[in-house]
Amino acid sequence: MAADAILQIGKSIVQHGPLNHRVYVVRLSPEDIPGIIHTLDALAEEEGYSKICVKVPESAGDIFIKAGYQVEAVVPCFYYGRETAFFMAKYPDPQRRIVTDPQTIADVVSIASGYRRNDYTPLVLPGFSLMPAHPSDAGEMAALFRSVFETYPFPTYDPDFITASMKEGVRYFCIRQSGQIVAAASCEVNTDAKNVEMTDFATDPGFRGKGLAGTLLYAMEAEMKKEEFRLAYTIARAKSYSINITFARGGYEYGGLLPNNTNISGTIEDMNVWYKRLPG
Q: Which of 126, 157, 167, 169 has the smallest count of CB within 10 Å of its CB?
């Protein structure tokens, strides 16, 4: 199935398509509130999508609630290190709101939260090297993403997409062993609001269990702190013990659950939100 499309509505960036079967406001411009609400409704109705999701400043939350949205996750200090964000959703198809395995998800959050600490300092293992990725690495990273994920919400399996996203400011990092990329991740930065999404974590199956995701996360955070970003967050697979533990161990706090949110590894999955204030 083809990747979902990206378009600009006013000054906001929106992703939509049949892969994730949703309308997702990647970045909402306050200038587009409230008019964009009707546009999103119309797009979802026209295409038959079952979910609309958007990150909204708390100060505009009531506007979206009155339009039929609900708050699914809350992240303090999301905007400029000050204002809270509501991760909100509206369901044209109410069935999509239903979480089919809430007990497993609750268990993941409970176990992961038990690992939470604020002094975790992972080291790069001997024989491995960690570095920022460059456009010349796009082909190898795309091959890694293809090997790890059957499907993914964004086309990270395409070297051209990775190269284009680098030009737009996405920062990729990778870990090599014997010259080969064995793990990668990215920082999707919002330079205006001073927040960053830690995302696209992928580890070659032959190198799992070595804490490479945690090592990447720690290095990425250090770089974002230097650039004075104030808030880091992630949207993680809700049933994955390993990735939720990685963020909890890194000092992240649980923000909420996004039901049936993202097409990843062949199916639409529930996702957890974790966040962390970056000192500065």
A: 126
d(Cα 231, Cα 172) in Å, to the nearest integer? 18
CATH class of 5-97: alpha beta
pTM: 0.97
80: how many CB neighbours lie within 10 A of its CB? 12
Pairing of strands 5-9, 12-17: antiparallel
Ranges of each domain in the chain: 5-97, 102-277
**ω before 34 within 30° of 0 (cis)?**
yes
Class of domain 102-277: alpha beta
Cα Rg for the chain, rounded, in angstroms? Answer: 18
Q: Cα(142)–Cα(18) distance, rounded to whole angstroms? A: 22
CB 241 within 8 A of CB 104: no
């529930």: which residue's tokens?
A: 270
Q: Left, alpha or beta for 200 (phi > 0: left; psi -120 to 50: alpha)?
A: left
Per-residue pLDDT reduced to its tens digit, 18-70: 999 999 999 999 999 999 999 999 999 999 999 999 999 999 999 999 999 99
For residues 205 and 71, the answer to whether their CB atoms sit within 8 Å is no
- The DSSP line for 87-113 is EEEE-SSGGGG--S-HHHHHHHHHHHH
Q: Which tokens go with 38?
A: 């009707």
Same fold, 5-97 and 102-277: yes
Section 71-99 average pLDDT:
98
CA 4, CA 17: separation in Å to the nearest integer?
4
